[in-house]
């Protein structure tokens, strides 16, 4: 690519049904509004914003309408993955994504391009019985394999982590149930994979395994604590949100975390 691609990675906004909704002492509408102010003051215009899931706190239909109204005048394309607190059909109904080519009629799975670079979003939402785990359906796994056969450089977006995070509770409860299978598909094409970006864990992290980079973004709303021997979910005190600025070039992938006050 002759010109670097720069995008913003956000996750886990947890919108409620109205502007007054509060979860764990955070007003999610106000937190997201603060994020948008940060974006508008950036000294560059990102190519797009990717939201890796949990748009709402509990599949609130009014929450999707609310975030759609907030970003209506945003001059930056915005894309959404499906989280465990989301409904894919509602994302597709209320949050149309400019330039995205849908690859599954039932799931929120699609691709889009910036220049010659391909971006591919996977719907990892499984049944309620396995929640908060995710799973990549056989259909999507085959679509991914087909995409990789094109030989294009590709960056992937999904809500769930595929591999262990060195934190007992999260490794037991939050991963893709077929994350290792997913990882091996990527390893077979590792020269094409620029990175896999995810959310769900409300924390920025980077894992490099077998040549594949997995990177998460902190939450706009509230941050988990991820200690090695942690046996239960714990949250940091409320007050700050996080997002990542990601730069792709022909020879590098640069991820920078930024924080802001709610």
Topology:
Elements: E1 5-10, E2 22-23, E3 26-27, H1 28-40, E4 48-51, H2 61-70, E5 78-80, H3 88-94, E6 101-102, E7 110-114, E8 117-121, H4 138-148, E9 154-157, H5 168-173, H6 179-187, E10 193-198, E11 205-209, E12 212-216, E13 224-225, E14 234-235, E15 240-248, E16 253-261
Parallel strand pairs: 1-4, 4-5, 8-9, 9-10, 10-12
Antiparallel strand pairs: 1-15, 2-3, 6-7, 7-8, 11-12, 13-14, 15-16
Structural notes for this entry:
The protein is α/β, with parallel strands linked by helices and 262 residues long. The protein has one domain (6-261): Metallo-dependent phosphatases (Purple Acid Phosphatase, chain A, domain 2, 4-Layer Sandwich). 21% of the residues lie in helices and 27% in strands. It is built from six helices and 16 strands. The chain has helices spanning 28-40, 61-70, 88-94, 138-148, 168-173, 179-187, and strands at 5-10, 22-23, 26-27, 48-51, 78-80, 101-102, 110-114, 117-121, 154-157, 193-198, 205-209, 212-216, 224-225, 234-235, 240-248, 253-261. It has a seven-stranded mixed sheet, with helices on one face. A five-stranded mixed sheet has the order 5-4-1-15-16. It has a two-stranded antiparallel sheet with strand order 2-3. The longest helix is centred in the first third of the chain and has 13 residues, at 28-40.
Compact overview of the structure:
21% of the residues lie in helices and 27% in strands.
């Amino acid at each position: 690519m002759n010109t670097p691609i720069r995008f913003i990675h956000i996750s886990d906004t947890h919108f409620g049904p109205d502007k007054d909704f509060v979860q764990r002492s955070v007003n999610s509408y106000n937190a997201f509004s603060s994020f948008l102010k940060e974006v508008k003051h950036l000294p560059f215009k990102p190519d797009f914003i990717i939201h890796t899931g949990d748009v709402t706190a509990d599949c609130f239909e009014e929450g999707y309408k609310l975030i759609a109204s907030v970003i209506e005048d945003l001059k930056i394309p915005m894309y959404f993955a499906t989280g465990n607190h989301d409904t894919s059909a509602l994302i597709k109904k209320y949050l149309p994504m400019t330039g995205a080519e849908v690859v599954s009629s039932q799931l929120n799975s699609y691709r889009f391009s910036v220049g010659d670079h391909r971006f591919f979003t996977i719907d990892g939402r499984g049944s309620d019985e396995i929640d908060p785990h995710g799973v990549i359906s056989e259909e999507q796994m085959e679509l991914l394999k087909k995409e990789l056969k094109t030989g294009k450089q590709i960056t992937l977006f999904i809500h769930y982590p595929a591999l262990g995070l060195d934190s007992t509770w999260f490794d037991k409860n939050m991963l893709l149930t077929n994350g290792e299978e997913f990882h091996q598909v990527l390893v077979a094409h590792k020269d094409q994979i620029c990175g896999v970006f995810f959310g769900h864990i409300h924390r920025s992290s980077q894992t490099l395994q077998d040549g594949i980079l997995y990177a998460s973004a902190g939450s706009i709303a509230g941050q988990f604590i991820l200690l090695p021997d942690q046996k239960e979910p714990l949250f940091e005190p409320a007050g700050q949100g996080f997002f990542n600025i990601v730069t792709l070039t022909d020879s590098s992938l640069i991820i920078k975390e930024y924080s802001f006050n709610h």
